[in-house]
Design goal:
Chain lengths: 114, 116
Amino acid sequence: TQLLEQSPQFLSIQEGENLTVYCNSSSVFSSLQWYRQEPGEGPVLLVTVVTGGEVKKLKRLTFQFGDARKDSSLHITAAQPGDTGLYLCAGPGGSGGSNYKLTFGKGTLLTVNP
Amino acid sequence: GAVVSQHPSRVICKSGTSVKIECRSLDFQATTMFWYRQFPKQSLMLMATSNEGSKATYEQGVEKDKFLINHASLTLSTLTVTSAHPEDSSFYICSARGLASYNEQFFGPGTRLTVL
């Protein structure tokens, strides 16, 4: 079973600060996805990274896929209260069953205080 | 595009009753949908994979007779929690597999189930 470890698990920062969230695995993934989930809502897909070393930017969010495709990071610049939420990384694969399943990390719960 | 809806968003029921949750893909056909359960401040826990026109595949430890899944059309999957008990209270989220080749999933807004 492929596992994804996210760190930190909890992060509380002040508005305007920068932060980085990590997603690591001992396995190679063909792609990794990042989702953000706000309280009481379903997760929303932010980005998919596919190529080793790839960097994608989404406004103040920068996503990077490791060269070996075993890890990824999410960097937020000048965090805002609207960035508050649970950030999940996910990759294809899982134990048994459908080939379409995703393996999810345990998530990083980010709180940005005004 | 890739919008998934869930109904109801919240439901409160008495212990022993059954509750049905609907998951619809609104603007695309989804041959594969997934049902997750989520506890507060935790990640998603996959319960089952729902395939259109065939039996659902349940994850280890999930009782298939308690959580009945039906995927009768390419846009609708339902989860029925039978004989619900307070320990079934949770946030249930469905997702639909997208059309791209990276196994991306598009999630519904979730259903908060409270069993009294």
